[in-house]
Amino acid sequence: LNIHITAREFGLIVSLSLLLLGISMSLVESKDGIQCFTFEHNRDYQQVQFKFLDAVESMDPNNFVVLLQLNPYHIDSLLQLSDVCRIQEDQETARDLIERALYSFECAFHPVFSLTSGTCRLDYCRPENRAFYLVLFKHMIFLEKRGCPRTALEYCKLILSLDPDNDPLCMLLIFDFLCLRCREYTTLIRLYEEWEVHRNLSQLPNFSFSVALSYYHLSQQEDISPVENQQLKQKSNVLLQNALIMFPGALMPLLDLCTVQPDAVVSSHAFFGPSSQIGQPPALLELVSLYVGRCHSLWKEAGLMLWLEENVRKGLKRVDSQDPYLEDCQNKRKQRYQSAPRNIHRHVLMSEIKEATATLPLEVTTQPGMGFDPLPPLDSIVSYIRPERYDLNALKFSALYDTGLLMKGTQYGNRRAQSSAGWLNED
Predict the structure, then answer these.
(1) pLDDT tens digits, 79-136
(2) What gap in Å lies between CA 265 and CA 268, rounded to an integer?
(3) Sign of torsion, CA 256 258 259 265?
(4) What's this model's pTM, rounded to 2 decimal places?
(5) How many helices (H) and strands (E) does the chain have?
(6) How far apart are CA 265 and CA 269, in angstroms?
(7) CB of 120 closer than 8 Å to CB of 160
(8) What is the pLDDT of residues 20-58, one digit of tens each?
(9) Which of 121, 149, 90, 173 is nearest to 349 (CA)?
(10) How many Å apart are CA 34 and CA 40, to the nearest integer?
(11) Which residues have C-beta within 8 Å of that of residue 411, sequence separation ≥ 6?
(12) DSSP 23
């Protein structure tokens, strides 16, 4: 984001946002060092939003093209068309549209809104704010896929800082992955240690396995003493065994995606057998599938499978000896994972990891999929309401026929197609 601007340039940007973009930001509340902001839509922008909803109902992607030709910085149209381009494998255009949406928001920032202070909040219950979360999330995913995991991690931190208590996009489910991708092991361990007491991060499969993996990688560094090496290795062993005992259903799918055949002792043992996966509560299956689908590539590094095999065997010995930790884990699995909160479902939908989306409950998968607002909160704060029934002819954008824009938009769309072919807080 371009934050190095002069006062005159800032004034021009504010004018552009108010006159052309139709989006502004206001300070709602400032208390105890925390500042709560919200984006706002002016009346002209609201009218464009109504046309956008008509375009969604028309189910014709060309209508988004037409809408953007007249309103090139309309956020939800940019989000929706970006998804269309991505599905058509036009990744470059999909990224460009998200970056344009990001710029639109940047132009509307309040003078005291800061991306780096960690004290600015945006309420996800307000529809005007939700688009900012989604744009940041999609930009973060594009960055990671382009080989920029360090930058992606910073965006992850930013999204988490906007509402760390509610975490509406459940950024904690990807934070560990990005830390491991860019080798920020101490960052992950520090968050885990500071948040474990009040957020029970060890009850998330991704944190349970990834923190163990972080300690292992730290033990492999060459600039540490033999004593420290032994301590880190021992810590990583215990944490990995605990993760395997707490989440036994993760092992076989992980080995399968890593194309590793388990030995007979492991595959024939009831603890890691089919019952460990079939008997998982729905929410736990969703979390485990998400972790395995996203992070299996991290386990393909040299030496990791030998370390995993060693601790699987040690874990089985603890199981066979009826380690008290085993019963504790069984009780937690039965009590805590019956149904996942809405933000976890939302994260799985946006991540598009097939192993996880296949586990989503019917009440989620049967809902109309809206890329510009997946699984909106049930307690949304609505600041303006769409008219009861917009004229059906508006779907055809009849006014645009006179300008010839619809034909150009359709041709543009065709060319594109052708070129592309608190439940965890329990004690």
Answers:
(1) 999 999 999 999 999 999 999 999 999 999 999 999 999 999 999 999 999 999 999 9
(2) 6
(3) negative
(4) 0.85
(5) 22, 3
(6) 6
(7) no
(8) 579 999 999 999 999 999 999 999 999 999 999 999 888
(9) 173
(10) 20
(11) none
(12) E
3-state SS, 86-125, equals: HHCCCHHHHHHHHHHHHHHHHHHCCCCCCCCCCCEEECCC
Q: What is the DSSP letter of 20?
A: I
Nearest to 141 by CA among 191, 183, 184, 83: 83
Closest CA to 151 of 92, 207, 102: 102
Rounded Cα–Cα distance for residues 100 and 135 (Å): 10
**Range 141-146, long-range pairs (CB < 8 A, 24+ positions):** 141/351, 142/91, 142/94, 142/95, 142/98, 144/178, 144/181
Separation of CA 123 from chain center: 17
Strands in 120-122's sheet, in edge-to-edge order, are 23-31, 34-41, 120-122
Paired tokens of 124: 């996800």
Q: Exposed (0-12), middle (13-18) or buried (19+): which is 143, by Cβ within 10 Å?
A: buried
| Residues 6 or more apart in contact with residue 115 via CB below 8 angstroms | 1, 3, 158
Beta-carbon count within 10 A of 195 CB = 14
Q: Report the DSSP pairing between strands 23-31 and 34-41.
A: antiparallel
Q: Contact 194/419 with Cβ under 8 angstroms?
A: no
Tokens of 328: 């504790």
60 contacts 407 by C-beta, under 8 angstroms? no
Alpha-carbon separation of residue 217 from 18, 182, 189, 212, 233 (angstroms)? 50, 12, 12, 9, 9
**For residues 173 and 141, is the Cβ–Cβ distance under 8 A?**
no
Q: Are 337 and 284 in contact (CB under 8 A)?
A: yes
| Length of the chain, in residues | 427
